Amino acid sequence: MRKLHVTLRRLVLLAVLLSLLLLGYAVVRQRPQDMPWTDLDLSQPIGMFTGRKLTALTGDAAQCRALLDRAGVDYVAVQPGGADQCAYSDAVRLRAEKDAIALAPASVAPSCPVVAALKLWEWQVVQPAAQRIYGQPVRSMRHLGSYSCRRMYGRSAGDYSEHATADALDVAGFTLADGRSISVLRDWKGEGEDAQFLRAVRDGACDLFSTVLSPDYNAAHRDHFHLDQAERGATGWRACR
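Request: output the structure for the sequence above.
Response:
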């Protein structure tokens, strides 16, 4: 029993020290987004806990839409649909905006937490990478869809995919301002600037989405990035491949 008490005291002390270190880090760098208890702000750079805060928006559609509103994102909320394991209630469809990356097809309506992460990815990762590597912005993003009432990998049994609740988006490629096309299927391999760009945006997505799967994961993802905001309970583990 005494050993248990000593162990508990040590754990509490470590937790306090970690909190103080985080607080000191955030104060010194003036980065409140690096603190787990601060509110998410889509106008701020990506912080240590931004991804977890985005995932936590699942189940609070009103808060998520309020964040999009404050960030000036133009969207329309989609009526709930589906049923049972394939029900969705917080999907939103982005409207065309000047200088924003257009989704192609434009009719896609992922869940609000996915869209919030998608906009941060656009602002903080995709466009900076495009400017750095190509000297021009991305104009559109090609995708393979969001909502699909199916189980993982299209199996007849097992867990349902995050697509079943519109909580995922599969990104297949990008088109630059000059019309140049970048394809996950065609350009992932190699050492050229297209491969460099794709790996940069994949790595950046890992700070924002609960799950990021690329051609590095398996053959099923050879032609797209799977991005989702899966909830994984208290552990909150994240997948990035």
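Residues 40-240 form one domain.
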